[in-house]
Amino acid sequence: MRADKMNPGGVSGNRSGLDSVTGKLKHYTMMMIVLSGAINILGITLPLFTMQVFDRVLSSRNVDTLFLLAIAAGLALVTAALLDGIRSMALGRLGEWIMQCLAPDVLARSIERRLVDGTLRTEMLRELSQLRSFVGGPGVPAILDIPWTPLYLLIAFLIHPWIGFLSLIGMLVLLTLAWLNQKLSHMKMRKAAALNAQVMRDGDAIMRNAEVIDSMGMSPAVVGRWSRTLGEEVRLQDSLQCRNAALVSVTRLTRSLLQVTLYTTAAILVLDQQLTGGAMLAASIIMSRLLAPMESMFVHWRSLVLLREISGHLKAFFALPDLRSTETELPRPLGRVSVERVVVAIAGHPAPILRGVSFSLEPGEHLAIVGPAASGKTTLSRVILGILRANQGAARLDGMDVSKWRRADLGKHIGYLPQDVELFAGTVAENIARFKKYPDAEIVRAARMAGCHQMIVSLPNGYDTEIGEGGYLLSGGQRQQVGLARALFGRPRLVVLDEPNSNLDAVGEQALKQALTWLRESHVTAIVVTHRQAIVGQMDKLMVLQNGAIKLFGPVEEVLTKHREKPATVSNETVSQLAADANRAIVDSRQEDGDAATNGSSDAHDDDVEDQPKEAAA
């Protein structure tokens, strides 16, 4: 049963995928139980050999019989050892198979659920890893041996009824101790697990903000706050560990006392000639084999409880409804955007972030969204992309609700540059190509459009330069340019840029304007969220958001005219300067367009760039 031959990638990311894995897992579990049965049947070899040697060989002094029994017992024990090794390897591969089957689906669903539950991170992947470790660990073989304990109990009764009764009493005592342990520890174990997850989340957050914490000397306070949560978890874990250690000691003491009682009872039976000496030794071995799974299960009881918790979490996680219900592959969109009475409210927020926002854009139109801080600009852009689902209303692309569009299909037609540009460990080319296999010419084309081709080729290995986790080997402006190239990659039909020039210098802003010009010539719909007005002059339409509602919307010059006529409609200082800044931007844009038509940019001199608008239009 090889892990790589059990179709790890053939499970879809939904409840049916978990059901498929569960169904196959039941089949493999039955195979393991049958294998454990063979191991346990062969486990009878040693008590039978002991009984025959003491009761027959020693009395008959037959060496030939002794050698024959020794050879048979040796073969049986070697076979049992081989089967036990095969079982351990199979369980290890079974754990790897579970991880390979479910981990991609868990991660994909976690990405979706993260958009709904901002607190969700990688908890489910961690729990899945714990499940894999448990399946491949020493606790599962003991569990698989439990269904075969009645075999040893039957043999104990066949040796003598009193031996059987003692063995049965021993089983019941150990099971009672295990049940008592579960009752006493259940709530504390759940609380400790929750605290552990919180400690891990807080630790991740601290590491992500290491620069801020170190620069402002926040480390003692932050670490102290984190340590208090850790201390509470440690105290709970210590309490559980002490209780578990005490009960394990009681269990071992109980087992030892049972062995003493067994020997005493068996000796009395031998003296009364109801039992032979060989049967007494065989009974001791049988009781040891009978109680060993019980004791092992008790030692791994916390893992068993954790396994049950993880199974419940996985079932609940996969039972959550899919955020994207459309499975039909839709045609390539033209870029028509319509937002219909969108309302977005977040629990704990005093007022809706967006309040009845409605507007539409025709294919190829460019829109600038401006407004004061916390006016809902970024939230609106996320709704337009389908990242955030509106409480009321819908955002549509060519008439289809983007929140329900299958992301693998929609992503090909979307370009997005968020405020905080996140790059991934890999090469520059891989990040631009969104980690898909594409011709190099397409990657270079996107970089030229973003105006970062010359910057990239100046890196040590050009497009093959490793940028490290989060792109930390690049500067903020370089990361933003690579992020812009990623947004423009693949000939998208809708591009949303959120503060695209926040980290750009003058050269970068000129490249951004040139990219917007190319998008316009390629008839690509573009939405730019900005606080700055340097690129407003290139836009077709302008929207002013305030307190989650549209205050002004329409063609740029019309909105500016309305703004001059009704300055009181927007009171924020940033937006009150909109008219003057935008008028200057319009003039500057027209002048720069004339200069660009005469001179062009350094990247535009290449033949590929000269053909770019034609290629994109095609």
Summarize the structure.
The chain is α/β, with parallel strands linked by helices and 618 residues long. It has 23 helices and 10 strands. Strand 9 and strand 10 (549-555) form a beta hairpin.
Structure description:
The two termini are 51 Å apart. The chain folds into 3 domains: 1-138, no CATH class; 147-299, ABC transporter type 1, transmembrane domain (ABC transporter transmembrane region fold), CATH 1.20.1560; 337-549 and 556-617, Rossmann fold. It has helices at residues 15-42, 45-60, 63-116, 123-135, 139-145, 149-159, 161-208, 210-215, 219-271, 277-299, 301-319, 377-385, 407-410, 428-432, 440-449, 453-457, 476-488, 506-521, 556-565, 573-576, 578-598, 607-610, 612-617, and strands spanning 337-344, 354-361, 366-370, 392-397, 400-401, 414-417, 494-498, 525-529, 541-546, 549-555. The strands form 2 sheets. A 6-stranded mixed sheet has the order 6-7-8-3-9-10, sandwiched between helices. The protein has 23 helices and 10 strands. β7 (494-498), α18 and β8 form a beta-alpha-beta unit. The protein has 618 residues and is an alpha/beta fold. The protein is elongated and about 115 Å long.
